[in-house]
Amino acid sequence: MRNILTIIRKEFQQFFRDSGNVRMILAMPIIQLLILPLAADYEVQNIQLCVVDHDHSWYVNEMIQKITSSGYVQLTAYEESMDKAMQLFEHDKADIILEIMPNFEKELITQNEASIGISINAINGPRASIGGQYLQSILQDYNQQIRLKWIQFPKINPLPMLKTEFSYWFNPSMDYRHFMVPGILVILLTMVGANLSALNFVKEKEIGTIEQINVSPIKKYEFILGKLIPFWIMGQFVLTIGLCIAYWIYGIRPEGSIGLIYMFSTFYLFVVLSFGLLISTYVNTQQQTMLISFFFMMIFILLSGLYTSIDSMPEWAQVVTIFNPIAYFVKVNRMVIMKGSDFWDILPSILAMIAMAIVLISWSVLNYRKKA
Amino acid sequence: MNQFWVFVRKEMWHILRDKQTLFVLLGMPVAQILIFGFALSNEVKNSKIAVLDLSKDQITQQLIERIDASKYFDLEENLTSPKDIERIFKKGKVKLVLVFENNFDKNLQHTHEAIIQLIADGTDPNVGTTLISYASSIINDYQKELFGNQLILYSIKPEVRMIYNEQLKASYNFVPGVMAMVLLLVCALMTSIAIVKEKELGTMEVLLVSPLNPFFVVISKSIPYLIISILNIVSILLLSYYVLKVPIKGNLILLMGVSILFIITSLSFGLFVSSTTRTQTAAMFGTLIGLFMPTLMFSGFMFPIDNMPWPMQLLSNLIPSKWFFIIVKSVMIKGLGILAIWREVLILLGFTVLMLFISIRKFNKRLDIA
Amino acid sequence: MNNEYIIEVDSLTKKFGSFTAVDKISFTVKRGEIFGFLGANGAGKTTAIKMLSGLLQASSGSARVIDFNINKESEKIKANIGYMSQRFSLYDDLTVLENMKFYGGIYGLSNSKIQMKTDEIVKVLHIQDYKDKLVKSLPLGWKQKLAFSISILHEPPLVFLDEPTGGVDPVTRREFWELIVAAAHQGTTLFVTTHYMDEAEYCDTVSIMVDGRIEAMGSPKYLKEQFNSPDIHTLFVSLARQSKRTEI
């Protein structure tokens, strides 16, 4: 025990000696949590609409007014021809082109049906499909409005109707920040944890001090624990800063118990730190460490459900996420912070973390040989 | 000039010797393309739903079966009381709950109106919206089937066309994005680290006293990364064309040309970083925070620039990858020619010249002191 | 512990693939002597020292260090030896005192013992004014002397020094050897590798390694007589010329 404390004290002395480290650990959470959520706003809004109107009728005007009054869609241009409108697509100046045929109004009244052309710039697939859905639902509403005006509906529907009502729970304002901040917090913790621990080990290798430790009577597990614990403490510290920023800046207050978040991060940090340690046992230089930890981090983050939902992934990728610690914490953080999930809800994830921590720590202890 | 190639050869040896690094440098774009192409999508399928059926009549049973049978939804659980809704959401698996009111069928018969409540887990707003719109459309279809096609008066029929990307594949957006990201990482990060490493080890001085112009010494260090980057472009394009089926609509030579221009831009940024830093760690964090993070954020490929506050939108203009992203989209996906992108190309050229100019001055100054 | 020899090596061999770095060496080291382990670069000195201190597993052969078998009891060896390598072994970004406290703690010394030893070292090395300075800021010679003092902080009966004087000026080298001789007077056995041949004169016993084998061993005086050589340097050069290994 005393051996471990000796190493912990040394790590802290080294860490705080370099003011760059201290600045990084304070500045990273602040910068990331202030800037990333501002950028990571996937709400589809400001859809830029270009109208090509060959009809010029009163109904068309009313329809366009209805569309733009929704707030999601902005009318950015009126063009005379489809060719000119397409040029806007080429320069990404428009998202949707609404083409209204000549005699639109006439057909609507005389033939009970008129079509309208919607062309969507679909390079960005998700934006295109959600934008299209918006526009179509606005058009449906408008259509209903016309009908109500022209036909006198009886009190009871003449035909049976299935009526749907919908509501969104846990995030009624549909604010993207409430969704992203808990996830970004996880990424932050992961980057600090895995990078710092991996770099720290490799640095001792590079300078050669590790040899001096190796000839000493210190046991492998003492050395490893003595190195993990300081970074574990720093991880919890960064988490605390992050939670404070989430509360002060974004007004995000965990619905569930904050103790649960810390409890989970206790195990999570051991997983992440021992992963960093594992990398360091395979490489020799800091450059390699950064590159390799970056490589894995990127795969883990992309497959974590932070940006795209895990449910949408193909089956094999969903299987991969079972082994992705980041995916668990992103999920748990969102569950506890946004929905107020309790201990029993997150227990399966906690068990998964414990299993991963045991595997990774034993793997790296085995691989970190005091003998070559 | 022979001496120059001697230097280049030495750099190649360094890189070929370090198998781990080489593996990551060449494997990264492949892994990214495959992940983005196959694992990431916003498509909704087999989403878990729960049902609270307070009526349990024929119509609700049929409707539930219909929804369960669709490729979008899987019925996970039948709830028995409204209290269960919150419980099941908190467990995290179920993202949508359907509630059928009491006497559903009866109401439909008598008042001609029956209410289905759709409650979505709104933690992810986009997923919530999509789930509700899919569920509603299944219900609408069912209604049409049940009561036959009602004569709907005065209907506006939208005819939707998706331009450039008919199947709404996410790959159309990220292939150009991955190109920008990987090239920047390989060129700027690796070059700057390689140069600073020699400074740290003190071997730089040995190189600088050689008869070759010091600036060529530095340039020679970046040549291998230029070669690796070109290999990366080729592998990205091959993978996206043959595996992801993303078409290359524009001129391939133009596409390669602008990519090489962007590589040189990235290299010049790497040189700039290395001329201003002394240690590997500083160079790493310098490129990661100063170049990589902004690229990820402002190139428009992971995060929508349109939604950002205006100061950030303004800032995004200073990020070379933003312009490269636009160029690649225009040439590769939209099939446009040089006339459509000359402005962006000029901007990239401007960045390159500026960065090279600053770094040359910095390197020469250091030499005067030494 | 009554044994006259603190190290007994019997046909110790280390192979890296097809390359034999250390080839069946056998020798003994007496308690309390300064044992010089000489050889050109790449002769296998560092590999041998790493096997004896438990850092490297031997391919074949055996050795007893203090009272322990190097193949089976390397952890016990580690607790009882001191070690200082040619690569610098102190933490640059810690102060002199912090380094001492760290290594003292690693070897399980009590706080009062550490306090006592640090006071002693500070006095012997005359670094009163520097004890709270970062190691980074010390001149190389001081660092080496400090590293040596720290390697015997826990008073081990045996210390391995792997090219401790590399890159140090002659005056400091002399001071460094005075520290070594002083430690030997207190009963510590010192096992030193070096390629400064003049340093061999400080040693009680010298062995010269060429191509992984020990080509000559004995007191400096005995060696000079046996090989009919004016000094160890000349002897070494004549032996080293037979080497088939190219210098790395």
- The counted number of beta strands of chain C is 10
Content of β-strand of chain C: 25-35%
The helical percent of chain C reads 25-40%
Q: What does the overall shape of chain C look like?
A: globular
* Terminus-to-terminus distance of chain B: 24 Å
Largest β-sheet summary of chain C: 6 strands, mixed
Percentage beta strand of chain B: 5-15%
Number of structural domains of chain C: 1
Instruction: Give the ordered list of helices and strands of chain B.
Output: HHEHEHEHEHEHHHHHHHH
- Give the overall pLDDT of chain B as a whole number: 82
How many individual helices of chain B? 14
Computed CA radius of gyration of chain B, to the nearest angstrom = 29 Å
Largest sheet data of chain B: 4 strands, mixed
Strand order of the largest sheet of chain C: 6-7-8-3-9-10
The tally of helices of chain C reads 8
Coarse shape of chain B: elongated
Mean pLDDT of chain C: 86
Question: Biggest interface between protein chains, with counts per chain?
Answer: A-B, 105 and 105 residues
Q: What are the secondary-structure elements of chain C, in order, as H or E?
A: EEEHEEHEHHHEHEEEHH
Structural class of chain B: alpha/beta
The fourth-level CATH homologous superfamily of chain C is P-loop containing nucleotide triphosphate hydrolases
